[in-house]
Amino acid sequence: MCTNNLTVLAMGCAVIAVAKYSENVEMCRLTEQVVFSDPYRVSQYNRWTSPYLDEDAEAVRQDDELKLEVAELKSM
Predict the structure, then answer these.
(1) What's the pLDDT score for residue 26?
(2) Cβ proximity of 40 and 70 under 8 Å
(3) Which residues, 6 or more positions from 67, have their beta carbon under 8 angstroms from its beta carbon?
(4) Which ranges of 1-76 does DSSP label H, i.e. alpha helix?
(5) Separation CA 22–CA 65 (nearest Å)
(6) Domain ranges of the chain
C-alpha cells in the first residue's frame, strides 16, 4: 500500500491482515466504506428520507468532532 498517511497505512495493513485471514478483501473494503466513510461525506450510496432528514444528514457531514471519533475507531 503506497501512502504517506500513517493512519491510512495502518488501516490498510490491518485490512490486508484480516483479508488474508478471511480471504475476502472486497467484503472488508465494502464494510470499511459503509461503516467508516460513506455516512460522513456525500456518497452515491447514501440514502435518507428527503427532505425530512436533509438537515440531519448535513449535520453528520459537517460534524468534525464526530469524524475524528470515527477516524479513531477506524484506526483500531
Answers:
(1) 85
(2) yes
(3) 40
(4) 6-22, 25-32, 54-62, 64-74
(5) 32
(6) 6-74
Q: Which amino acid is at 23?
A: E
3-state secondary structure of 47: coil
Cell (9 digits) for 58: 448535513
8-61 confidence digits (pLDDT tens) = 556 667 667 666 666 777 887 888 899 999 999 999 999 999 999 999 999 999
Residue 48 CA to its chain's centroid (Å): 18
9 neighbors 3 (Cβ within 8 angstroms): yes
The cell for 38 is 460513506
Cell of 50: 428527503
Q: What is the pTM of this model?
A: 0.63
